[in-house]
Amino acid sequence: MAMTLRLSDEEMHALRQRAKHETRSMQDVARQAVREYVENHSRAELLDEVLDEELPRYAEALERLGQ
């Protein structure tokens, strides 16, 4: 699926420089950045869900450890 990505001049310059430095296309660098963003935020959301479910179970023990 194709999409249009609008970047500021500064963002375009940074992307161009990064791609040149890595000897890759700007598209490859941008696609990798999107994949990493989605992966990192998906992990954070999963961790938040687990903590929301599990922390209440151990709240008393954690409170005692903090004293």
Please describe what this structure looks like.
This protein is mainly alpha-helical and 67 residues long. 75% of the residues lie in helices and 0% in strands. It has helices at residues 9-22, 26-54, 59-65. The radius of gyration is 20 Å and the shape is elongated.
Task: Record the SSE blueprint.
Elements: H1 9-22, H2 26-54, H3 59-65
Helix pairs in contact: 1-2
List the keywords.
67 residues; mainly alpha
Structure described in brief:
The chain has 67 residues and is mainly α. The protein contains three helices and no strands.
Radius of gyration: 20 Å
Instruction: Kindly name the structural category.
Output: mainly alpha
> How do the helices and strands follow one another from N- to C-terminus?
HHH
Total number of beta strands:
0
Mean pLDDT: 89
How is the biggest beta sheet arranged?
Answer: none
**Segments where pLDDT lies below 50 for 5+ residues?**
none
How many alpha or pi helices?
3
The proportion of residues in beta strands is under 5%
* Helix share bin: over 70%
- Estimate the global geometry from the Cα principal axes: elongated
Gap between N and C termini = 55 Å
